[in-house]
Amino acid sequence: MTKFYQKEIETMPLPELRKLQNEKLVKQIKHVYDNVPYYAAKMDEVGVKPEDIKTTDDIKKLPFLTKDDLRDQYPYGLMGKPLKDCVRIQSTSGTTGRRVVAFYTQHDIDVWEECCARAIMAVGGDENDVVHVCYGYGLFTGGPGLNGGSHKVGCLTLPMSSGNTERQIQFIQDLQSTILCCTPSYAAFLGEAMKEKGIKPEDNTLKFGIFGAEPWTEEMRRNIEASLGIKACDIYGLTEISGPGVSWECDQQAGMHICEDHFYAEIIDPDTGEVLPDGEVGELVFTPLDKEAFPLVRYRTRDLCVLEREKCKCGRTHVRMRKPKGRTDDMLVIRGVNVFPSQIETVLIKDGYDPNYMIVVGRENNTDTLDVNVELLPTMTDEKVEQIAKREKQLETDIRSILGIGAKVHLVAPKSITRSEGKAKRVIDNRKLID
Ligand code: DLL
Question: Which atom in ligand 1 lies closest to the alpha carbon of residue 324?
Fold first, then answer.
């Protein structure tokens, strides 16, 4: 039977939900206009005043915010509360120049953790569960978000963080973990590692998985479910809006319910900015309805997906989003980490190479692979094989220190990478992500 963390809100009849959203939106836009001069100026520019926003239908009058605005205003320019009222920051994994830093008041943390608590109970968890969190902890929102949600439900929480697979397996066995939280690629890897150790799916205590932070397919879901002997559910979120828990799948595994009492979602045409009807693919845009410290309005996520309104069998009324189909920008999510081609380019140029390279992303055994082909300079072509291998190792070390994940570097002959007359194509993404 479906479990709920906040049943009344999660199953709220639509007219009541709309009323709640409208009330919150009116208050929120006033809060932003009064406290975020940067956004107030944007509203003034298009001649919209807080009084013009009475219902969610009016939201289309408001200007968008994009990642560029966030980079521009880094770090304090979009804050809605003074620093003394903030208790936490989290940050995206982008490491070049200006990363996105999001601020939280205690209220913001409570809302975020409640959304994660909803996700844990929606898959079937309750206070009897042992929640094994191997998302990264620290600036990344994965670990802290699920950790907080698990506390709210009252589960025994294992703050494992990522890596050290031997120890993960030992703790799963010794502490009898029942809910696994990590990226789907790491879940697949754990499944493989357990198999190699001769641990059968029916021999572990795991029941459910809450996997997200990167795109994954239905095929991958089935593989993970079989290899770990669990039910695997998707969870979505982004640092700018709070972190994991913005939406999540219930035990029906039929799309991710957006916590609509906290986040108003729209789908827009990424080229024109026009709002699209439910069921059409477009860019997902969020307006948090009660965030205090970092209150973004109409934030363009660059994630492409579809919203579905039909009522879910679980009884929840909140809209569902399908798995994101990709992104409108060039950011790659590799093993859950955000990677920009420009980060790799920076390393290459710093190490003395020309920017003639190709990034090849693939997927082997359900884990993302990252290869970087880089042209040798003509002056290097006479070097011995050992010398070239040493160069490759050096680049791999430098790329890892910037990205935080490993890449395989291949130095190739000068002029062997196709030049482009228009925009350069730097990435070949061989992962088949669209269902
Ligand atoms: O990845 C938050 C998170 C942590 C979500 C743990 C779920 C679990 P960021 O690092 O800011 O935040 O990256 C956000 O990752 O815009 C999507 O492109 C992608 N993403 C997140 N969840 C999913 C998912 C966290 N379930 C960016 N499916 C987002 C596909 C996802 N893509």
Answer: 30
In whole angstroms, what is the distance from residue 317 CA to residue 245 CA? 16
Task: Please name the residue that has the structure tokens 């703050």.
Answer: 159
| CA 118–ligand 1 middle distance (angstroms) | 17
Q: Whose CA is closest to atom 13 on ligand 1? A: 238
Q: Are 235 and 245 in contact (CB under 8 A)?
A: yes
C-alpha span between 209 and 172 (Å, rounded):
13
Nearest Cα to Cα of residue 234 among 89, 242, 246: 246
In the three-class reduction of DSSP (H, G, I as helix; E, B as strand; rest coil), residue 410 is classed as strand
**Which pair of structure tokens corresponds to residue 176?**
């009898």
Per-residue pLDDT 10s for the chain (435 aa) are 899 999 999 999 999 999 999 999 999 999 999 999 999 999 999 999 999 999 999 999 999 999 999 999 999 999 999 999 999 999 986 544 568 899 999 999 999 999 999 999 999 999 999 999 999 999 999 999 999 999 999 999 999 998 899 999 999 999 999 999 999 888 988 998 899 899 999 999 999 999 998 888 787 798 899 999 999 999 999 999 999 999 999 999 999 999 999 999 999 999 999 999 999 999 999 999 999 999 999 999 999 899 999 989 999 999 999 988 767 776 788 998 888 787 888 898 889 898 788 999 999 988 999 999 999 998 999 999 999 999 999 999 999 999 999 999 999 999 898 875 433 678 899 986 533
What is the token pair recorded at 419? 């030049």
Q: Which two tokens stand for residue 317?
A: 């009324």
Rounded Cα distance, 309 and 176, in Å: 38
Which residues form ligand 1's pocket by a CB distance below 6 Å? Answer: 92-93, 135, 141-142, 212-215, 234-239, 243-244, 301, 303, 323-324, 327, 333, 338
Here the tokens at position 57 are 């239908």
Helix (H) / strand (E) containing 67:
helix 67-72
The residue nearest atom 1 of ligand 1, judged by CA position, is: 213
CA distance readout (Å), 102 to 13, 99, 108, 389, 434: 32, 10, 11, 41, 30
Rounded Cα–Cα distance for residues 424 and 421 (Å) = 7
Identify the three-state secondary structure at position 250: coil
Closest CA to 383 of 360, 411, 419: 411
Give the whole-angstrom CA distance, residue 23 versus residue 32: 15
